[in-house]
UniProtKB/TrEMBL annotation:
UniProt keyword terms in alphabetical order: Isomerase, Magnesium, Metal-binding, Phosphoprotein
Natural source organism: bacterium (Candidatus Ratteibacteria) CG23_combo_of_CG06-09_8_20_14_all_48_7
Keyword Metal-binding: yes
Pfam family, one: PGM_PMM_I
Protein name per its UniProtKB record: Phosphomannomutase
Cofactor: Mg(2+)
Source taxonomy: Bacteria, Candidatus Ratteibacteria
Length: 119
């Protein structure tokens, strides 16, 4: 799988859905994030949410499959606004979380915001 360097931003990953960010990429991201958590000694429990973009459900489904295939316990919030994701992540003390969203970007885009507690 070829990954475009341009999707990596300072605080998230963003790109054109179904071109730069595919379900296959989301699965691999889930596996890579699980590997990172293991290497950092972070508990393998991740909360996942997504926005209302048409590609978000498929990306979050494959993301969670990649996480679970790597031994991560996933709590799925479903479709939620990003502030609700951050609130749930903090209030329930999840060690890590991923929000599938492209924020303010045009509809053709999507992205992933990754959070690791105390990082």
């Amino acid at each position: 799988m070829k990954v475009e360097k341009s999707i990596f931003r300072e605080y998230d990953l963003r790109g054109i859905a179904d071109k730069e960010l595919t379900p296959e990429f989301a699965f691999g991201l889930g596996q890579a994030f699980a590997d990172y958590l293991g290497k950092e000694g972070t508990a393998k429990k991740v909360v996942v949410g997504h926005d209302n973009r048409k590609t978000s459900p498929a990306l979050s489904e494959k993301l969670m499959a990649g996480l679970q295939a790597s031994g991560v316990e996933v709590t799925f919030l479903g479709e939620v606004p990003t502030p609700v994701f951050y609130l749930a992540n903090h209030k329930y003390s999840f060690p890590a979380g991923i929000m599938v969203t492209a924020s303010h970007n045009p509809p053709a885009y999507n992205g992933f915001k990754l959070v690791v507690r105390h990082k």
